[in-house]
From TrEMBL:
<dbReference type="InterPro" id="IPR004358">
    <property type="entry name" value="Sig_transdc_His_kin-like_C"/>
</dbReference>
<dbReference type="Pfam" id="PF02518">
    <property type="entry name" value="HATPase_c"/>
</dbReference>
<keyword id="KW-0597">Phosphoprotein</keyword>
<dbReference type="InterPro" id="IPR050428">
    <property type="entry name" value="TCS_sensor_his_kinase"/>
</dbReference>
<dbReference type="InterPro" id="IPR005467">
    <property type="entry name" value="His_kinase_dom"/>
</dbReference>
<dbReference type="Pfam" id="PF00512">
    <property type="entry name" value="HisKA"/>
</dbReference>
<keyword id="KW-1133">Transmembrane helix</keyword>
<keyword id="KW-0472">Membrane</keyword>
<dbReference type="InterPro" id="IPR003661">
    <property type="entry name" value="HisK_dim/P_dom"/>
</dbReference>
<feature type="transmembrane region" description="Helical">
    <location>
        <begin position="20"/>
        <end position="41"/>
    </location>
</feature>
<dbReference type="InterPro" id="IPR036097">
    <property type="entry name" value="HisK_dim/P_sf"/>
</dbReference>
<keyword id="KW-0547">Nucleotide-binding</keyword>
<protein>
    <recommendedName>
        <fullName>histidine kinase</fullName>
        <ecNumber>2.7.13.3</ecNumber>
    </recommendedName>
</protein>
<feature type="transmembrane region" description="Helical">
    <location>
        <begin position="177"/>
        <end position="196"/>
    </location>
</feature>
<dbReference type="GO" id="GO:0005524">
    <property type="term" value="F:ATP binding"/>
</dbReference>
<dbReference type="InterPro" id="IPR003660">
    <property type="entry name" value="HAMP_dom"/>
</dbReference>
<keyword id="KW-0418">Kinase</keyword>
Length: 478
């Protein structure tokens, strides 16, 4: 199966290389086949026409010779003598009377097999124009007509020339020519394939170079291919211009998000402060005012968190998101987060770990933020009567943190994209009020600490988010 997959990957039926090879091979095949066919037809025509000319000359000369001999001898002797003079090893003549009896024939019939001789002599009609015929796998040029002497019809003349050897040699030559043409087409196709592969090499290099360009490389990325055709150089120049425009657009977008997040966070924090101040004097408010102000305060806090997430992402994109890494006891960190989450979410959250201290070099507050985001995500997207399990394990040299829920699950086609910014699975996230930044923040923070995050999910069976970090030894003084 791997060999077949590798074959199809190497010979993509939609690739430009295969299309060019097939196109040129088809043109070569048609061209060589046409040339071979025309050559065959021309050679056969030359071969057959020369024999037809010989037969026509004999058919035209025989009556004159008989007439000439008849002046000195009887008709029967004259006819036999003329036939004898004009016949040779490959040419056979005979004359039939009106009642289909042979009145004269050449003396070389013993060179033919009896079966062929009998079949030839049994012919009653023959075209006056020479034509090619086949009798028992033997090839003959045949011609006939009425034989007249002194205005008297003696009978029907039959002239046949055996060209079996020439025809068989010609057919063998045609087969050899066909086989040679096939080999030439294969060789030409192979040479063309190598040449096309070499010619398309700059395009493959260009594709490989563009594949490895990431968002962080857009500003410095520049494609350059040496010794490339003019068209590829033009394409490379166009790509460089496009990358430059993308880099400018991306930089403007990041700057805009950073500026907006920074400028909006301060006034919203002030507004939230005033709302909290008013809510602390809620005795002066009626129930409608209290509800409105509480809703406004919650939405303000949610917007502030959103802006903080956007600001963190913008800082990470610009390389300004700083980490204070140190070796920490993860058992203690995750236990603290689980207790806090269980208290505020009023959900059953279990913490499972091995009976061993597990440590890693991380930013304490950032990892705490990651675990809180994942637990909050599990709380939002799982029924309230199901439990959430947080696992901490050590596998070889890696620390494994898992947050497991028994929620709705994530469709397979969405699992590869849920860590993208603002991406939401609508089927499961229509009532949660999320903005699609939580998992993107998780991925950014974990990768910045040298780890990886992944998800495994089944519809109706829940999801498991897994974080892996390099393990470290805990210092003795901790």
């Amino acid at each position: 199966m791997k060999i077949i997959n590798g074959f199809w990957q190497k010979f993509d039926i939609f690739s430009l290389r295969l299309r060019l090879i097939l196109g040129i091979a088809l043109v070569s095949t048609v061209g060589l086949s046409g040339l071979a066919g025309w050559t065959t037809w021309k050679m056969q025509k030359i071969l057959i026409n020369s024999h037809k000319a010989d037969i026509s000359k004999i058919a035209d000369r025989l009556p004159r010779d008989v007439q000439l001999y008849h002046e000195m001898m009887s008709v029967e002797i004259s006819l036999q003598k003329a036939i004898k003079n004009l016949s040779n090893q490959d040419t056979f003549l005979w004359v039939k009377s009106s009642d289909q009896k042979i009145i004269a024939k050449s003396n070389n019939w013993n060179t033919l097999s009896p079966t062929i001789a009998i079949e030839l002599m049994s012919l009653t009609e023959m075209s006056t124009q020479p034509e090619l015929g086949q009798v028992n796998q033997h090839y003959f040029v045949l011609c006939g007509g009425n034989l007249s002497v002194d205005g008297q019809v003696l009978g029907k003349l039959f002239v046949v020339k055996d060209i079996t050897n020439e025809q068989l040699m010609f057919m063998a030559m045609v087969r050899s020519l066909s086989i040679a043409s096939i080999f030439v087409i294969i060789i030409i196709s192979g040479i063309i394939a190598i040449y096309i592969q070499h010619s398309l090499q700059p395009l493959r290099h260009l594709s490989q170079m563009t594949t490895v360009i990431s968002l962080s490389d857009l500003g410095q990325a520049e494609l350059n291919i040496k010794n490339a055709p003019t068209e590829v150089k033009e394409l490379t120049h166009t790509f460089n211009k496009m990358l430059s425009r993308l880099a400018q657009s991306w930089e403007q977008e990041r700057q805009f998000v950073s500026n907006v997040s920074h400028e909006l966070r301060t006034p919203l924090t002030i507004v939230n402060g005033y709302l909290q101040s008013v809510l602390r004097r809620q005795n002066n408010l009626n129930s409608t005012q209290l509800e409105a102000l509480t809703t406004a305060s919650l939405e303000t806090e949610r917007t502030i968190r959103l802006l903080q997430d956007l600001l963190d992402l913008a800082r990470a994109d610009n390389g300004y998101l700083h980490f204070q890494k140190q070796i920490c006891d993860l058992n203690e960190l995750i236990s603290e987060v689980v207790k806090m989450a269980e208290k505020y979410s009023q959900r059953v959250i279990k913490f499972e770990t091995i009976n061993q201290v597990i440590a890693a070099k991380i930013d304490y507050n950032r990892l705490k933020q990651v675990v809180i985001n994942l637990i909050d995500n599990a709380v939002k997207y799982s029924p309230s009567d199901t439990e959430i399990i947080v696992k901490l394990n050590l596998e070889d040299t890696e620390v494994i943190i898992q947050v497991c829920d028994q929620g709705y699950g994530i469709p397979l086609q969405h699992q590869s994209r849920i860590f993208e910014r603002f991406y939401r699975v609508d089927e499961a996230r229509t009532t949660t009020g999320g903005c699609g930044l939580g998992l993107s923040i998780v991925k950014t923070l974990i990768e910045s600490m040298g780890g990886k995050v992944s998800v495994r999910s089944h519809l109706g069976a829940g999801s498991i988010f897994t974080i892996s970090l390099p393990a470290s030894a805990l210092p003795d003084h901790i």
